[in-house]
Amino acid sequence: MRKARPKKRPLIPDPRFNDTLVTKFVNNMMLQGKKNIAYTIFYEAMDIVSEKTGEDGLEVFKKALANVTPAVEVRSRRIGGATFQIPSEIRPGRKMSIGMKALVNYSRKRHEKTMGQKLAAEIVAAYKEEGTAFKRKEDTHRMAEANKAFSHFRF
C-alpha cells in the first residue's frame, strides 16, 4: 500500500482558450497519447458549436458540462446479506470527471461522420438539456431519489 497520497500535478492551460478545464477535457478525450489530435477534434467541435448556436463555443461547452454533471450517485453497500444502493454526494473533482467522461463516451456513440461533429452535437444537446449524456445524469438522480430511504446507511 502507498504511504502518502500522490500530489496533484498542475495542468497547463490549453493554447487557444487558455483554460485548464479544456485541457482536462482533452486529456479525457485523448486516445493512445495523441494529444494534438484530441486538441484538433475539440477545437473543431468548438467551431461547429459556435456556428450552430451563435454564441461563444467555450461558454456553451461549460454550460453543457455543468448540465451533464451529476450531484449525487448511488453506491452499492452490502449490509447483513443484502446489497443496498445508497445515495451519496460526489466530491467536486469526481463530479467533473464523471460529466466529462459521459460527454466523451456518448459523443463517441453518436452517428455523425467525424468525432468533431459528434462531440459538437452532444455538447449542443447537453446545452439544451437533452441528449444521452444529460439523460444519464437524470437517471442517476432518479436512482438516488428512489433509494433515498437507504441514505441512513451512508458510510
Describe it.
- By secondary structure, the chain is mainly α.
- The chain has one domain (20-153): Ribosomal Protein S7 (Orthogonal Bundle), CATH 1.10.455.10.
- It contains 6 helices and 2 strands.
- It has a two-stranded antiparallel sheet.
- A hairpin with a 2-residue loop joins strand 1 and strand 2 (82-89).
- It is globular and about 55 Å long.
Topology, pairings included?
Layout: H1 20-29, H2 35-53, H3 57-68, E1 72-79, E2 82-89, H4 92-108, H5 115-127, H6 132-146
Antiparallel strand pairs: 1-2
Concise account of the structure shown:
This protein has six helices and two strands; from the N terminus they run αααββααα. The protein has 155 residues and is mainly alpha-helical.
Key descriptive features of the protein:
single chain, 155 residues, mainly alpha, Ribosomal Protein S7, 2 strands, 55% helix, 10% strand
What is the approximate shape? globular
Give me the count of strands: 2
State the domain count. 1
CATH superfamily: Ribosomal protein S7/S5
CATH architecture identity:
Orthogonal Bundle
Radius of gyration: 18 Å
End-to-end separation: 22 Å
Topology as a string of helices (H) and strands (E): HHHEEHHH
Question: Helix/strand-derived class?
Answer: mainly alpha
Task: Extract low-pLDDT stretches.
Answer: none
- Under CATH at level 1, the class stands as Mainly Alpha
Which percent bin holds the helix content? 55-70%
> In DSSP terms, counting alpha (H) and pi (I) runs of 4 or more, how many helices?
6
| Beta-strand fraction estimate | 5-15%
CATH level-3 fold name: Ribosomal Protein S7
Tell me the strand order in the biggest sheet: 1-2
Mean pLDDT: 91
**Biggest beta-sheet profile:** 2 strands, antiparallel
Could you state the oligomeric state of the chains shown? single chain
